[in-house]
Amino acid sequence: RLTYRLLKENGYTLPWIETRRNIELDFERVAKLLQQNWDWRQKATGHRGLMHAEREWQRALQTFRDEISSLNQRIRNYNLEIPSNQFHRRQINVDQEINQIINSSD
To answer: SS3 of 46, please?
Structure first.
């Protein structure tokens, strides 16, 4: 704890802590993008607007799935690097996250 405190006070951190932080920031970024796309899709009107919004939503879903797959690989690598199991990060369940975004705006 003393070492960590000294590192933190001097602007440094342990590499695995920085890795976890970056994973969380990247997850927040991709989830926010998907949420924005869902919100835009929900506001689309007219037949052509709805068709365009649905195509964009499907693209956003595929991008989100790809990003989560990449993040899950980074999480697996992170879990191998950390000094204790108590710091493990669970894999991201892509379908659960998509459902949460869809249902949050109901």
So the answer is: coil
Strand, helix or coil for residue 14: coil
Tokens 């440094």 correspond to 12
For residues 39-52, average pLDDT: 89
CA atoms within 13 A on the CB side of 22: 12
Structure confidence at residue 83 (pLDDT): 86
DSSP annotation of 105 reads: T
Question: Residues 77, 97, 21, CA angle at the centre, nearest 5°?
Answer: 40
Residue with tokens 């964009």: 56
Half-sphere exposure of 69 (CA within 13 A, CB side): 6
pTM for this prediction: 0.84
CB 38 within 8 A of CB 72: no
